[in-house]
Design goal:
This protein is mainly β. It contains two helices and 15 strands. The strands form three sheets. Strands 3, 4, 5, 6, 7, 8, 9, 10, 13, 14 and 15 form an eleven-stranded antiparallel β-sheet that branches. It has a two-stranded parallel sheet with strand order 1-2. It has a two-stranded antiparallel sheet with strand order 11-12. The termini are far apart.
Length: 288
Amino acid sequence: MARCRATWLALAVSMVLMGQGALGSALGVNEWCSTYNNTFAACNPPTDCQTADTYWSVPTGWCKIPGDPSVDPFVSFDSYGACGVKTMGLQDVNGKTYGTLYIYRTFENRLIATALINGTSEGQWYYEYPSAEGYTVPSAILTMNQISSSGQLPPDTPQYADPVFSSGKYTCVTWDIDLGRVCDPDTSFYSANPAAVDNAGCQCREGFSQCPTLNLTASTTLVMSVRLNISRYSLVGGESGCGTRSESRLVGSKFQAVQIPILAYNFYGVVQASCPDVKPDPKAPRPP
């Protein structure tokens, strides 16, 4: 998958400008520790290991955390702007939890998925871009489509890969996708190839001369999978305070009460994606 840094940055800026509801300003590891848990290994003392998202703190584009900004300073997307928020564990195949995944749709017909990696008492897990195998092997993949009448899953190939803007370590990553122009997983994938810019960044797969996008704005349910490869660093010794990398894990969306057994394959599940015609009254109870 070709990578063009200048075009990727241009697409990233465009994606940020189209996203709505972003709040807040960058905080940092000190605030992250004091807000959530000072016993994390990254907090005793606050680590020198830097992340591109500044530990959940970059609010626009890179890390969109939904909720009530008056309660949590790390919330960067007011949930009043979302049509309900689905929250689940970011887990490995054995059910161990490494973080949280938020999936929500906005009233501007954007599908947002934000993966947060928790702190731990032994070292710290990070998502890294590029992966250890280089730019051609994604470290993070999001796949989604409508549920076909045959119950067939979207093809298990990178549809929306690494959603980040620059190389580095991350504790938070966000996909922000226009539901009116979704890459068809059967025929295309999201790319920074300049030739794909006019097609919403969707580059045709080999064997396809055309690959029109899908309009999923009318979809009430979507079948989705979110997966990340994360690595644990010791935070002791090594360069830049990150220490040495000891192990890696594949983690992903852990959907509860999956009714279709095949959806458990590779972290697939069903998301309710309907949206009411109007935003809720700000004086009404906050959406869940």
